[in-house]
Every structure is written in C-alpha cells, then in structure tokens.
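REQUEST FORM: STRUCTURE PREDICTION
Request ID: SP-0412
Submitted by: Lab K.M.
Chain count: 1
Length (residues): 407
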Amino acid sequence: MRREHATAQRSKGRFKISVLATATGLTVALSLWSAPTSAEPTNSELRVQGEAAGEQRTAPVDVSRRGDMDCSDFPSQRAAQIFYLNHSPGSDPHGLDDDGDGVACESNPCPCYGGSTPPGGGGGGGGHPNPPPKRIKIVKVLRGDLVTVREGKGRPYRVHLLGAHVPRNNSCFARGSLRALRSWIKPGRVVELDTDREASKRRHGDLQFDVATASTNFTLGGSQIGYGWANVDTIRFSEKRRYQRFFNEAVNERDGYWGECVKNFGSVKHPYIVGKTFDLGDWTYTFEGTDPDAWPEMQTESAYFDPPAPGWTYVRARVTVTNNSYYGGNINANNFALFRGRTAFGQFDDAYMSWCSNPNGYLDTEWVDSGDTLTGYVCATVRGPLQATDQWQVAENEDVFRRVKVQ
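STATUS: Completed
RESULT:
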C-alpha cells in the first residue's frame, strides 16, 4: 500500500503523544532535557501549566546542612540539579553526577531539569517564572535512528531516536532507513525531545530522547518502526509493547525493509519463488508453475469452454491450500489475481468470463474443513502472452497480500 507518510496520521508508527488533562484543567507538557557541554542542549526543563502548576513545583531543599548530600536527599531530579549547579558543579563535591554528563541524580523522579545554569526562582516553589525553552530544530539526519539537532543558537548535538534500532552498516536496511527518514524530516524541522523514565539517557554514546515533530507530534522512532525501516530496540522503554505491535504490522504488510530488502518474501519487489510454501492469515499456500496457455488443456477437459477473445490468453496455476483455523472456511476466488505491473487480471475479465477448468478443478468458493487440504487451479485472462515478470497475488485484504512468481 502506498502512503503519503509525510503528512498522514496513522494508528501505527507516527502516533500522537497524549496530553494529560485532569478535571481541574492541569496539562503537563513534554519534559525537555539539556546538558552542560557546548555540544549538548543548554537550557530546557519540564514545564507545568494550569491552575495546579504550583503543586508540581520542586520543594525547597535545606542547603544549610554542611554534610555530604546524596541523591536520596532530594525530592526530585530538578531539586538535585539546581543544588548541583549552585555548589561547584565542576568538581561535584557531593558526587551527584556519577557519569559526568552534567546532569545530577538522573534516577530521581521528575520534575526534571538538565540545564547548565540555575533556572529563575532557585529551585523553590516561588521566584520568577523560567524563560520559555528554546526551539529545537533538526540539523541533519545521520542514520535511520540518529539525528543532529540544535537548541536555539547553541552547537549541534546528536540524538538517538528512542525505541528504534537500525543496523550500523551499509546494508539495504541501513540505506533504506536513512532515505525514509530524510524524506520527511528535513533540516530546520522543529521537534520536541521527551525523556522516558524507563529508558537510559544515552544509547551508543549519544543522548537518547523520544523525538517528536512539534507540529504533528509524530514520533520519529515509532514512525521508522511502523513503516518497516527500524527494528524495536532491545532496551527497556515505556512504549515497547506498542512499538512491537507496529513492527509486527510492518512485517505482515511487507513495508519498508521487509518489502524492499528481504528476498523471496512475498513482496512486490521480492515475490515468492514457485513451489514456496507460505502462510497468510489462516491459510497455507503453495503455487506450482503457471501454464502460459491453458486453452488446449481446457478444450480437452470440457467442450463447453469458449476460446479467449482475440488478443487475450487463458493462464492458470495449480495451488494447494490448507485451512489452519479451528473452523471450516471458504476459499474466495476473488482473493486471487495475476498482476502485470499495477494492472490486475482476474479470473473473470471484461474480455471474457471463464472458469478455466472443470467445476471441481478450480478454486472458487469451495468449503475446506479445519486442517484439510485442497488443490485446484487459479485462473486469469490476460492481455497478450504471459510475461516472465507477471506475478500471482493472493490477498487477505488491501494491505496484506503475498506475491508469487509465475515461473
């Protein structure tokens, strides 16, 4: 199925990030991290809006203590970060930044702050409101799961797309994933960065965020997975089950890598070879080679068949089907067609209508009990002779189908 993926919203891939609202009208915006070095973000933090915003602010910390402060002494990551910035962050005498990335107590609960300078208000409940965060824009797409962004006029820094994983090589997968992301994420695109409590802050040495387009809230990692151009990362993150569902749908629909790169996989680009047994839905199929001119055989089978119209050819292939469901079911002849490019030729064509075999010899609407197997012909009336690039198609629906070579 062809999709206008740059603008279309869909149930998988580019999903909307939910905005939480309470009865009092409280709305929580995305939490944006920043880090102290010149190569990373400079000043972003969790913002809370609405009547109950004061309830979410960081509680003041007693800094009169002269002893060592630990992360457990702070009610939130934001409180720890502000204390850290106000007490010699270069030497970190309290050991709050254990990995040296300029962000203190990353395991503490939010509210969160990753700025390199203390925000207005000193971290207490009052003080002046913080300035709005700087706009974050895409600088360059480096890989199918890695982008460079810039916050305001700061220096660019790299961000790994949370939840997505693309092979780090020059494979068909990697090249296609890069092309796919660059096709709709252009330099200058405004994005939002969101942290995930269940995921680490870094991945493969780069910062890791859930990156979403600011205008539509499509997540880049989810989109790449949903369109078949990324695997679900092995790390722990909150949307993993949902992303796995996107991944399964992409495989089933032969999207992205699964249709472009995997050989002998039933896609338009890489159809199954003749004799390949495959599953689709509740059925198992095996196509034999296609008879390029079935009319001589049809004449010997029945005297009631009429010849094809001038310029048209009867073709047919024997197919073995097995019903794998717990219930009996009918084979639907309308699910079979022969494709030449984008043109489909069915069993019943405008040029002529033909069953192409004896009533018991072709697959039409025969009933097949659970576990039973049936063999018969699928037929098509095609314009001109059969071509080597023609493909049989069996479809479950308009999005899920499998293609098979004719020879």
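NOTES: Residues 94 and 373 are 72 Å apart (CA to CA).
Reviewed by: T.R.
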